[in-house]
From TrEMBL, chains A, B:
This is Mitochondrial enolase superfamily member 1. The lineage of its organism: Eukaryota, Metazoa, Chordata, Craniata, Vertebrata. Residues 198-294 form the Mandelate racemase/muconate lactonizing enzyme C-terminal domain. It comes from the Eukaryota. Keywords: Lyase, Magnesium, Metal-binding. It comes from Cynoglossus semilaevis (Tongue sole).
Length: 436, 436
């Protein structure tokens, strides 16, 4: 007997990361990593935990949106939800009055992600499995029944999706065993935030090399000469055989992106991430084409707001790396759609992560992607940032620059009660003290 | 001495239009036309009024977002704002923490529109002019200084924009005089909401023909046989020389849109509006191409969330009619950008309107478009819906199916105090009575 959701609570939890420039980039100069943190209370002892990620100010708007969505959730049993998960997804995303506020984008969609993440967490807990294993054990028909194919059937139909999953079943057990022993390859963004000094960058990079890291991402886009110097510095430190990626966080217009990145080509970055507006599919296509001769790919996705946008990025050959996000897309449901489309177009998925809790969540998705969809590690890796994991009840485990598969039941979304209390905005102890 | 903004108030005002199926379409079956209604209070007697349009549920989220944006507005003088309006636009849309919630899309962007609409209203009042006349009297450099060109310079630079405006100056006085005497041509959507019976449709259509209307829009997309019958009915009533348009409100996937609309081609619609997801630029391009041989254009824009999306719709030849919206785009500032891009691509602007208050606002923009940008009425017209005008202090004036230019100072955003009180949600008299 699966539990019934009888109440939804949501809290505004903010970490004052801006005080030390953690997470700083060309567009987000002072982020306070935050969450709208959702708890689904049920008629049993089980709870579901979920959240979406934000940068501080405005989290109160997402909290308000979760509260508005709650009326669609309270009273539903988990059985009723998972029996027609596509229908439940559409209930949240296509309410005939609320959809005007999106549809499926911005505040209302990240709030939907928070709620759905909590539902998936609840389901995995009810089944006593970590989320990735719940997904791995589902048969293709059931997986596909969670996806809303509206607006993507010109690229992927339900039948094609099932066929892709069936075809990838060969070797699945082997890949699961491999993941359990080796883990999934990661790269680090922790060394080179834009607000860090050269000295700090060198120190962190040296530490990371000693820790076995081989793939490094650098923030760029504020000042070209700074970028040249920092790229040279990091390339010298990591040598020619390790991997360098650069990330502009939407700083440029299309033409500027091409000329700026061309100047950094000598440092052989694997990709330029978010060169321009996340909405500019055709712009990304132009940039991709212009940078291909330099051997530089385009990566984007952390602010790509839904599957319809990813569909077009793939159709237009506008990106060479798909960066799914566990908290911006409509939870597992929409991420499944994007992973399957990426597979069809033979574009590797390299998830966006970091922030607070994003590593905890997205590891589940990329494990599933490898075991059940892509069956490849070629040009694939998952972002890792070494921040704020201590606030989670099941924090990520990194070993030799690999994510080890989570073992606890659920989607790893649960935060420590003490952290939620201390960092709640504006009344938690930490904020009261800062605002003294 | 221009006034200084000392306080921002925002109210959730909803009209229970769903009770009579006004506004019903294939995706929005029961809208309660609503606004997040903003008042800028200043240190003088002048106030600025503005709003964004919503469909009922969720308006509280937009109210919350306006409250969050208010901290960026309070304390600013109008002079400081209009001296660098581009900077002020970017202050609201690119706050380094808040932009994560968009950027420039969904709840945060419609809330921005509400605030900026109120600023433009305040400015026009301070100048003692209706907004369209304020715009018409501004010189090209000043107009262009209100536009944020970020992410659109690959299609339109600041210099090009100035040149387009300079080129269109010839005949401007003549066009202004023409508008003052004749008004701007309108079409009606009031006859054929999806929830109306055939009898109601026939009655309203007969009335409209008697009232001088020559252009009619019909909602489609729920049931093909119904659509065939209703299209036949309305075409028979209006005859072969009047104009018919059809509107699916995003009901279809791409392939379905093409096959469905092809079945309605015999009724010679001028355009199919919103055939699929508002995010699907490439999908709209496919549909445009497939329907061109039938002589049917594609119109979209009421849920096109920003100038970057419009830019691509134009680049991809994905639409033949640009439907700007006064409450979804970032107010006048972003609409100026879209009108100029549309002009460059030689695509007519036919604004979205209706709802509550949209007619009041958008008439100003389309008057400016004709007088100062397009200089053409060919294939151009502005939507009109005959609802809820009685709640405004300066309601639209329609004469012989034309919008007559507003004469009162401001952006026509101000609602009657009594209406705001009665319809405020959930505590206004109307809602208290309905929920008894």
């Amino acid at each position: 007997m699966l539990p019934k959701i009888i109440n939804v609570t949501v809290k505004d939890v903010r970490f004052p990361t801006s005080t030390e420039q953690h997470g700083s980039d060309a567009m987000h100069t002072d982020p306070d990593y935050s969450t709208a943190y959702v708890v689904l209370h049920t008629d049993s002892e089980l709870k579901g935990f979920g959240f979406t990620f934000t940068l501080g100010k405005g989290t109160e708007i997402v909290v308000c949106a979760v509260e508005s969505l709650s009326r669609l959730v309270v009273g539903k049993s988990l059985e009723e939800i998972v029996r027609d998960f596509r229908g439940f997804y559409r209930l949240l995303t296509s309410d005939s009055q609320m959809r005007w506020l999106g549809p499926e984008k911005g505040v209302i969609h990240v709030a939907t992600a928070a709620v759905l993440n909590a539902v998936w967490d609840l389901w995995a807990r009810a089944e006593g499995k970590p989320l990735w294993k719940l997904l791995v054990d589902m048969d293709p028909e059931q997986l596909v029944s969670c996806i809303d194919f509206r607006y993507i059937t010109d690229v992927l139909t339900e039948k094609e999706a099932v066929d892709l999953l069936l075809k990838a079943q060969e070797g699945r057990q082997q890949r699961e065993d491999q993941m359990l022993s080796e883990g999934y390859p990661a790269y680090t963004t922790s060394c080179a935030w834009l607000g860090y000094s050269d000295q700090q960058l060198q120190q962190l990079c040296a530490d990371a090399l000693r820790g076995g890291w081989t793939r490094f991402k650098l923030k760029v886009g504020a000042d070209l000469e700074d970028d040249v110097r920092r790229c040279r510095l990091i390339r010298q430190m990591i040598g020619p055989n390790n991997t360098l990626m650069i990330d502009a966080n939407q700083k440029w217009d299309v033409d500027e992106a091409v000329s700026w990145v061309s100047r950094l080509a000598e440092f052989k970055p694997l990709w330029i991430e978010e060169p321009t507006s996340p909405d500019d599919i055709l712009g990304h296509a132009t940039i991709s084409k212009a940078l291909a001769p330099h051997g530089i790919g385009v990566a984007t996705g952390e602010q790509c707001h839904n599957r319809v946008m990813f569909k077009q990025l793939l159709q237009a050959s506008a990106l060479q790396f798909v960066q799914i996000d566990s908290c911006r897309l409509g939870s597992v449901n929409e991420n499944l759609a994007v992973m399957l489309m990426a597979h069809k177009f033979k574009v590797p998925v390299c998830p966006h992560s970091g922030g607070v809790g994003l590593c905890e969540l997205v590891q589940h998705l990329i494990l599933f992607d490898y075991i059940c969809v892509s069956a490849s590690l070629n040009n694939r890796m998952c972002e890792y940032v070494d921040h704020l994991h201590e606030h989670f009840t099941s924090p990520v485990v990194i070993k030799d620059a690999h994510y080890l598969p989570p073992k606890d039941p659920g989607y790893s979304c649960e935060m420590l009660d003490s952290s939620v209390q201390r960092y709640q905005f504006p009344d938690g102890e930490v904020w009261l003290q800062m605002n003294k």
